[in-house]
Amino acid sequence: MQGSDGVSSLTRGRLWSREEATAPMEYKVISALVLVFVLALSTLAETQSETCVMAPRERKNCGFPGVTASQCTSKGCCFDDTIPGFPWCFTPKTIDVPPEDECEF
């Protein structure tokens, strides 16, 4: 039986089935890629950390003259006004955290 477009209902049904089967597969592939990406980012986050403890000469300015502690920390920066001649508001230092050794019992 042919429709007004000249395509049989059997053929139309098969094409629709193929399209239906392809769409869920695309979602599965996208979901798998997102999962891999999230796992990779979480691994990276576990191996790096930030600290405000550093030598004064390592400080990189993050503020402006007269910045307050609350203004500085609201920008995600460190604040320490105890050492004159060095930036009081400075960017935190990124440090690598070694992975913990697994306990062998």
Automatic annotation (TrEMBL):
Taxonomic superkingdom: Eukaryota
Chief location of this protein within or outside the cell: secreted
One cellular component term from this protein's GO annotations in UniProt: extracellular space
Stored InterPro entries: P_trefoil_chordata, P_trefoil_CS, P_trefoil_dom, P_trefoil_dom_sf
Compartmental location: Secreted
Any GO BP annotation: maintenance of gastrointestinal epithelium
UniProt keyword Disulfide bond present: yes
SS bond partners: 52-78, 62-77, 72-89
P-type domain residues: 50-93
CDD domains: Trefoil
SUPFAM superfamilies: Trefoil
Keywords tagged on the record: Disulfide bond, Secreted, Signal
Stretches assigned to coiled coil: none
Full protein name: Trefoil factor 1
Species of origin: Cebus imitator
Organism lineage: Eukaryota, Metazoa, Chordata, Craniata, Vertebrata
